[in-house]
Amino acid sequence: MQAIIVGNRDAGVAGMTLTHDLPYPHAAENDVIVKVHAAGFTPGELDWPGTWTDRAGRDRTPSVPGHELSGVIVELGYGTTGLTVGQRVFGLADWTRNGTLAEYTAVEARNLAPLPADIDYIVAAALPISGLTAWQGLFDHARLTTGQTVLIHGAAGGVGSIAVQLAREAGARVIGTGRARDRDRALTFGVHTFLALDTEPLEQAGEVDVVFDVIGGDVLDRSTTLVRAGGTLVTIAMPPTIQPDNGRAVFFVVEPNRTQLTELATRLRDGRIKPAVGAVRPLAEAPDAFNPGRHSPGKTIIRVSEE
Questions:
Q1: At 246, is the secondary structure helix, strand, or coil?
Q2: Does the pLDDT value for residue 293 go beyond 70?
Q3: pTM of the full structure
Q4: Alpha carbon distances (Å) from 10 to 18, 56, 166, 212, 283
Q5: Could you give the CA distance from residue 286 to residue 18 in angstroms, rounded to a whole number?
Q6: How far apart are CA 196 and CA 224, in angstroms?
Q7: Which residue ranges does the record annotate as region Disordered (predicted)?
Q8: CA torsion, points 221, 224, 226, 228, in degrees to nearest 10?
Q9: Which of 165, 166, 174 is nearest to 147 (CA)?
C-alpha cells in the first residue's frame, strides 16, 4: 500500500518518502483496520520518541508519521467491540505505532469514535488532537466553569481556536493572544478581547481564572503571575518551572477519549465549533507539508484517499 515513511530520526523531514510497498497492517486484539480518507499531523512529531520506538523502547523504523485520521473500518481484530466493518470513524492513532499517512492503518478501537455521515472527512481529520487537547485542558484539568475568565494563548491556532469556541459555549469570558496578524481570525473564533503579544504587554490581560498555554518559554512563565487565587494554568508546551501564587500549574499530554470525541462531533454538526482547516494536500505532498517553512493559517490536512 502507499504510505509516507521516515527512515531514521537524524534525516528528519528530508528523510520522508512516499512508498508503494508498505505491508498491509495487522489487526491485533482490540484493533481495527481503517482505510484512511484524511489524516492530520503535528509538525514537531518527528522529534517525539514514540515516532521512532515501540512501547518497549525498541527501534521501529522506518516509521509512518501522522496521528489524526478519518476513514472507514475495513477489518476488526479479535475481541473488538463497539465498532463495525463499513463504519465511518475518526480519532487518534497510537503514538508508538505506525500512523495515519498511509492508505490503511491499525488503530486501537477505543481511540476512535463514530463519524456522522454529514461530517466531511477533511474537517473530521482536523479535530481529534486540537479538539481533545482543548477539551481536556479546559474541563478535565482547569475545570473551567460559567462566569470565569480564561486567557488562551495562540487563540487563532488549531488548539487555541477550538479552546476559544468551547470556552465561549461554557459561558466563560475569553481573552485570546497571538501575533497582531492573528487578531481578525481570533475574533472570528469568538474571543471577547485580543492581545497581540508582539505589540502589546501580556500583563494587560489582568487576573484570570484559567490560562491555557500552547507557547511555553517566557510567555508561560509570565502567565503564572496572571492566575488569580485558586486558579489554574494548563500548558501543553513544557512542564512549568514556576507555580502561580495560590494557584496551580498543570502540564499534560492529550489522551484518546471516545466519549469526548463524540461530544466534539456533536458540536461540530450543530455548528457550535469549527476546526481551523487550512491547506488540503495529497499524500505525495505530505513531506513538503511537514516543512517548517510552510506556514499557513489553519491545520494542513492530507487527503489520503477518495471516498
A1: coil
A2: no
A3: 0.95
A4: 18, 21, 39, 32, 22
A5: 9
A6: 18
A7: 286-307
A8: 180
A9: 174
